[in-house]
């Protein structure tokens, strides 16, 4: 996983930082982070 963790990575993706996409592509642990991001989004949308 990248230094900084899941939430900083999510913020960088939201800011459309180009390097985050190559970083995520090469990180095999990013699938779990993506699942967490989708679950959080779903939970927020339901409130």
- How would a textbook summarize the main sheet? none
Distance between the termini: 30 Å
Fraction of residues in H or I helices: over 70%
Q: Compute the number of strand runs.
A: 0
Global structural class? mainly alpha
Strand content: under 5%
What oligomeric state do the depicted chains represent? single chain
Provide the number of structural domains. Answer: 1
The number of helical elements comes to: 3
> What value does the average pLDDT take?
86
Give the overall silhouette. Answer: globular
Radius of gyration: 11 Å
Order of helices and strands: HHH
> Which spans have pLDDT < 50 for at least 5 consecutive residues?
none
Kindly describe this structure.
The protein has 47 residues and is mostly helical. The chain has helices at residues 6-14, 18-25, 30-46. The longest helix has 17 residues, at 30-46.
Set out the fold topology.
Layout: H1 6-14, H2 18-25, H3 30-46
């Amino acid at each position: 996983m990248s230094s900084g963790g899941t939430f900083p990575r999510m913020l960088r993706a939201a800011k459309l930082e180009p390097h985050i996409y190559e970083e995520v592509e090469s990180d095999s642990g990013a699938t779990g982070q993506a699942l967490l991001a989708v679950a959080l989004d779903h939970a927020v949308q339901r409130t």
